[in-house]
Amino acid sequence: MDNELSSLVVIFTEFYYWVTVVFMFLIHVGFCMYEVGASRYKSHMHTLMKNTMVIPLVSVTFFFFGWWIYFAFVNGPWIIGPLVEAPFATPWSELMGTHMGGAPVQASLTADDTAFWARINGVFWAAFLLFSWTAASIVSGAVIERIRPSAFWILAVLIGSFCWIIDAAWGWSWNGWMVQKLGYHDAYASGVIHAIAGGFALGVLIILGPRIGKFRSDGTARNINPHNPWLVTIGLFLIYTGFWGFYVACNIPIIDIYGPLVLDVADKTYFSATNIYLQPTTLSAITLNFIMSLSGGLMAAYLISDGDSFWTYSGGLAGIIGASSGNDLYFPIQAMLIGAGGAIVAYKMHYWVERKFKIDDAVGAVAVHGYAGFYGVVICGFMLWGYPSSPFEGYAPITPWGNFAGAIIMFFVLGFFPALIAAKILNSMGMLRIPREVEMVGLDINHESLRAMEAEEVAEAIRAEAG
Amino acid sequence: MNTGLVDNWLNVDTFGPIYPFVGTEVLMAVVGIAFWIGWHIMQIKKENTEFKQDVENIKAKGGLGKVLDDEVNREMGDSIGR
Question: Which of B19, B31, B81 is the closest to A330 by Cβ?
Fold first, then answer.
């Protein structure tokens, strides 16, 4: 921080990530509105609190171990190498506290560590944390009205502070083993957030079972309608707004591509925004592609759902998710058409899986995030075939098979199977599902009774005052 | 196989377009416009079918007067948010 220009770059970067965190808060406002609207009135307050408590629980566990995992697990560990030291990311690191970048007190840190991380660690941690909340909130919607909040919160920590951050270490970092060996490319997290969370939700749903009344005796599904469809769609609209912050947070705002952190070429300078893999892109390009993939998704979903508000809005999201893997590089019309494909995949697969396997996904989360995310990763492997996956030497190029393998790892290996195992353990202990009687009358039964008694008491007091 | 003009990032300072399938922009524009216009055509057809069904449903339920009366009764009994 000893010259104005480099200080400006550092503080701009710090401020940039801070702004994205504020925007991404809107994703969680949106998720709360969306789930509350989707539930029946008799359970809506518990639904709200179930999603709300994701925030503190994932935050503290991400502080305790999630952040460290991102840096320590890039090699697997023990897939291509050992655990990597990350003394700036442990919960006892001096760099997790207010730090001016001077000489470290702790022996595990170097002067380079403190100079680099002092002003970036907190905001970078927070940007990743908001992704962690998103992973857990995606699962939250699918399981409404019958999961025990305590079980959900254990699962939320598992996906939010463990499974997704492992996938990020592997496939969403500049040196993750999936990038090095598979050429895995997933710039805006179709796989690393959406496919893994959708796969995780599916694993939970298989063990959790459907809501009472969802399926008829002949196996066909009934529609359990949202108690407030307007709130659901406005919630989704807020998620779109917050998603802007997500996209921007996925980039590095400004870095010298020829500087020591990237290509390290003497006598050359080229400042650019990059994606997380340190490949150049521009904010302008992702702005176009975000809007075009949203538009393709909305248009396709409107047609195939006959203008259903829930599926149209969900399809817009599936459109963005379907194109996210390669939205750093696609031409906008490619993004639009790929987005349209994502919406169609989500809608068709949701109902096919519901019919065939009797899966009750209350909000289509597995479809919009899981199937559209999987599709997005696979399509990217074809669209960006042959591109270098990294500016660094020796990394595999992007290929359809590399990205397909990546999609399988995200959806199944790190999403579906850990969820299936965890849900099975919770279920075997009687901890997964709420009592049948409570589900039938609604989770808010005591809350509603208390409100009714309190209202009556106030009314009587007013009548007494009136004489 | 390479869908783009980029096979390494070493000369990024000389790069122009880096999206896949450079040279197909006009074709993509034609496909995109066809998608847009096709959307309007399909949507208008679906809307015609929907309105025709709506009018038939009104007749089947006893005509306009009856349906309007039912609507008023429903709105009076409806509580918002429940």
Answer: B19
Residue B1 inside a domain? The answer is: no
**Backbone Cα Rg of chain B:** 27
Is the Cβ of B39 closer than 8 Å to some Cβ of chain A?
yes
* B51 at A interface, C-beta within 8 A: no
Residue contact B82–A391, C-beta within 8 A: no
Of B21, B35, B81, the CB nearest to A228: B81
What the block records as the tokens of A433 is: 């599902």
- Residue carrying structure tokens 């996938």: A167
The answer to the question of residue B56 being in a domain is: yes
Residue A445 has pLDDT above 90, yes or no: no
Do A383 and B18 make contact, defined as CB atoms within 8 angstroms?
A: no
Cβ pair A306:B19 closer than 8 A = no
Q: Is residue B34 part of a domain?
A: yes
Task: Enter the pTM of the model.
Answer: 0.94
Round to whole Å and give the CA distance between B82 and B63: 29
B2 within domain boundaries: no
Contacts of A227 in chain B (CB under 8 A): 81-82
Domain hosting B48: range is 12-77
pLDDT in tens, A54-79: 999 999 999 999 999 999 999 999 99
- B37: closest CA of chain A, how far (Å): 11
State whether residue B19 sits within 8 Å of chain A by CB: yes
pLDDT value of residue B71 = 87
Q: Which 3-state string (H, E, C) describes chain A? A: CCCHHHHHHHHHHHHHHHHHHHHHHHHHHHHHHHHHHHCCHHHHHHHHHHHHCHHHHHHHHHHHHHHHHHHHCCCCCCCCCCCCCCCCCCCCCHHHCCCCCCCCCCCCCCHHHHHHHCCCHHHHHHHHHHHHHHHHHHHHHHCCCCECHHHHHHHHHHHHHHHHHHHHHHHCCCCCHHHHHHCCCCCCCHHHHHHHHHHHHHHHHHHHCCCCCCECCCCCECCCCCCCHHHHHHHHHHHHHHHHHHHHHCCEEEEECCCCCCCCCCCCCCEEEECCCCCEECHHHHHHHHHHHHHHHHHHHHHHCCCCHHHHHHHHHHHHHHHHCCCCCCCHHHHHHHHHHHHHHHHHHHHHHHHHHCCCCCCCHHHHHHHHHHHHHHHHHHHCCCCECCCCCCCCECCHHHHHHHHHHHHHHHHHHHHHHHHHHHHHCCCCECCHHHHHHCCCHHHHHHHHHHHHHHHHHHHHHHC
Q: What is the pLDDT, as a whole number, of residue A48? A: 95
Res B79 pLDDT > 60: no
Architecture field, domain A4-86+120-434: Orthogonal Bundle (1.10)
Give the distance from residue A42's alpha carbon to the nearest chain B alpha carbon, in angstroms.
9
| Statement: residue A398 has pLDDT above 60 | yes
What is the pLDDT at residue A435?
93
What total number of domains does chain B contain?
A: 1
Which of A347, A327, A352, A350 lies closest to A337, judged by CA? A327
pLDDT of residue A285: 95
